[in-house]
Design goal:
It contains six helices and ten strands, in the order βαββββαββααααβββ. The protein is α+β, with helices and mostly antiparallel strands. The longest helix has 12 residues.
Length: 228
């Protein structure tokens, strides 16, 4: 068992993501939330780690979502029940490396100014003091492909398509600066994961290895090797 102020799992994860960055699926993550005591899981794209105000980087994992998605309602309900945030599991399966990272923690949502009143309070000062979250939100919007930005302009996700031909009229791509993109930007929401516990399994080595990383109240990480 060892203790470290730095997050050793993050160093390992970032190294593997960089090594295999040419794999188009390497940044896909399975994200689990809870609804009525039932698990709800979907794929999302890992967008990196939240920067800090000093030009460095935090341990906070970053993804994005549409505020109209069902998971937002699930997170909202859980977060109002627990002021520390909604529980979440954020899982990488890095096939080229034969490694899995299961990251457990709390998820926080940062939406557009018009949407924030309908979201749980965002603990910006506790998560990353000095970070301009609205600038970060707009930067991430600008980084997205035109096709993904256009998806935020579609009708309510999960609603019925009464006439399939109507789907052909949906925008296929939109530039970040287009006037029409504003509606999509209003729905664009940062999905911020605050890690508390990480379980890493290495299956490409013999014998297989498994490590668990537990974050303590003082912010340090304790590493324990366990049986796979």
């Amino acid at each position: 068992m060892t203790s470290s102020a730095e997050a050793p799992w993050k160093t390992a994860l970032k190294g593997l993501l960089e090594k295999h960055k040419d794999d188009k699926d390497i940044s896909n993550v399975s994200v689990g939330t809870v609804e009525d005591e039932k698990p709800r899981v979907r794929y999302q794209v890992h967008r990196g780690f939240v920067p800090d105000a000093r030009g460095g980087e935090t341990d906070l994992l970053l993804s994005t979502t549409d505020i109209r998605m069902p998971k937002v309602a699930q997170i909202r309900a859980a977060a109002y029940a627990d002021p520390t945030g909604a529980p979440v599991e954020y899982v990488f399966w890095l096939a080229p490396a034969g490694e899995q990272f299961r990251i457990q923690g709390r998820v926080h949502l940062f939406g557009s100014p018009s949407a924030r009143s309908g979201l749980p309070p965002f603990p910006s000062d506790r998560l990353a003091p000095g970070v301009d979250w609205e600038s970060l939100r707009q930067e991430e919007w600008a980084k997205m492909s035109g096709h993904l930005r256009a998806s935020f302009l579609r009708p309510q996700p999960g609603s019925s398509v009464e006439k399939p031909e109507e789907a052909r009229e949906w925008k296929e791509s939109v530039e970040a600066g287009e006037e029409e993109a504003g509606e999509g930007l209003e729905r664009f929401t940062l999905f911020v994961v605050e890690p508390e516990f990480v379980d890493r399994v290495r299956l490409a080595v013999m014998p297989n290895e498994r490590y668990q990383y537990d974050k303590k109240e003082d912010g340090t990480w304790v590493t324990t090797q366990v049986v796979p």
